[in-house]
Amino acid sequence: MLEQTVKNINSRFGWRNTRKLLGSSLGVTAQGLPLFIERVNSVVQHNPDLKDRIDDFWEGLIFSGNRLLSIYRITDEDVAKLQTIFTNQKKDNSPVSEKYPTPLSREELLVADTELHFAELRQDIIRDKQIDTAVFLSKAYYTEVIELDPTHLSDAGMELRANGGEIKCKTRQVTQCFNTIMLMPAEKILILTIDLSILPRSESQPQQYLVAKFIKKEAGVILNNPLELFGSIQDLYEKVDGRISHVSFITSDGNTSSLKLKPSQKCLRQDVYHHSGESASPILTKFKLGKIWDLPQSSSHILSVELILPGKRTMLDNPRIRLHEAIAKNCNNIDSIIFIVEKILDSVKSCEEKRRARSSGHK
Predict the structure, then answer these.
(1) By the number of CB atoms within 10 A of the CB, which of 89, 137, 205, 336 ranks highest?
(2) Residue 341: CB partners within 8 Å, gap ≥ 6?
(3) Is the pLDDT of residue 297 over 70?
(4) pLDDT in tens, 324-333
(5) If DSSP codes are grouped into helix, strand and coil, which group holds residue 192?
(6) Torsion sign across C-alpha atoms 119, 120, 121, 126
């Protein structure tokens, strides 16, 4: 059980973070996962209370990890409806609910249903804000491209592989998603988060549908469009906090270009190529942005959470194609998710104030 929990943490949070953050809390380090698990087992045998620390770490990831965010402004009436339906939710007797917070194994998932199952409601006060979070579990299929095992290759395939060729195939995989519906009652903000820790964003639509259907069918809340986030790309780029990790933009000659942060770099604002381009043509139009904030986890460790605003080139020219989604990456608890949400909300407010100022100036 302990070994599987550590493997679950590693699969959702990555080896680097698992070793750094979980390892440091346990006083354990290792070069690879098998030795890491062996040493974790050893320290837990000597101090059984450390198992609770591992379980808490895992449960924090249930609410975070990598997530697709859609943020809505709702009415007081909607807030009341959602709070009522949250309070009245009960866990069913499905295998996925009964085993929570432990995920089902692959074998169990293959025979599980694809419905949405309520798992937990928790209420937190984070930076003086009330946050109500309902967790819903669901099975999801996704496509994975893998290198074909040599045992399945013909002689011609083996020859191609021996000459440097790659032979890959697509397989259907299954995972368990820990989706959440988050409510900020005082702010009248609703956040739908889809678990992308394993599921690719390109295959998240069925999960989005399940969560939206629950809100409409069970709570009777009809959602308007989520907050429009395209204007936040430039706004967040200009804000001096955090570090720019990705930027896609239109160059002065009309072509598209992208820059991603390299391991040796701290922030793309200091990139020589990009900086010279901004100086020569400061109106370079950006349509996609990644931004990182370093959050202290202890006196010696930080967690670098990332916000991605995944805009597209076509959004610059077609006003009917809007950006209504953001991606939070590398989060380890509700606090870090809310940190990202607050950055988005602050930016949306800033953009709206700028639009009002421009509108007033034209009168």
Answers:
(1) 137
(2) 69, 71, 182, 189, 191, 328
(3) yes
(4) 999 999 999 9
(5) strand
(6) negative
Give the helix ranges, DSSP H, for 289-333: none
Query: Torsions phi, psi of 244, nearest 5?
Result: -75, 125
CA separation, residue 99 to residues 102, 108, 112, 211, 290 (Å)? 6, 11, 12, 21, 36
- The pLDDT tens digits of the residues spanning 245-289 come to 999 999 878 889 899 998 888 898 876 555 555 555 444 689 999
Distance, C-alpha 2 to centroid of its chain: 25
Distance CA 168, CA 144 (A): 10
Burial class for 314, CB neighbours closer than 10 Å (0-12, 13-18, 19+) = exposed
Q: Which two tokens stand for residue 173?
A: 């995989």
The Cα-based distances of 276 to 197, 235, 245, 265, 271 in angstroms read 36, 20, 17, 16, 8
Q: Is 274 helix (H, G, I), strand (E, B) or coil?
A: helix
Is 247 within 8 Å of 288 (Cβ atoms)? yes
Find the length of the chain: 363
Q: What share of the chain has pLDDT > 70, as a percent?
A: 95
